[in-house]
């Protein structure tokens, strides 16, 4: 994993569902996240903590997939 501020983790990304709700910092990327994001298609629900159930198996949450 590249350290924050370098490579794919050069920038920090924040998301929210509404301007009145709190903003959430998306986690840093790993090479596995990038590879998995290219292999799966998934419709996001808006719940960043929801597990992604797909084939191939992806053991992280929507916030990881969204960042990738």
- Poorly predicted tracts of residues: none
Count the beta strands. Answer: 2
Backbone shape: flat
Global Rg: 12 Å
List keywords for this structure.
68 residues, mainly alpha, two-stranded antiparallel ribbon, 2 helices, 2 strands, 22% helix
Provide a descriptive summary of the structure in words.
The chain is mainly alpha-helical and 68 residues long. Helix content is 22%, strand content 6%. The chain has 2 helices and 2 strands. A two-stranded antiparallel ribbon has the order 1-2. The chain is flat, with a radius of gyration of 12 Å. The protein starts with 13 loop residues before the first strand and ends with a helix. The mean pLDDT is 90.
Quick synopsis:
By secondary structure, the protein is mostly helical. It is built from two helices and two strands.
Topology (elements, then pairings):
Elements: E1 14-15, E2 24-25, H1 31-39, H2 62-67
Antiparallel strand pairs: 1-2
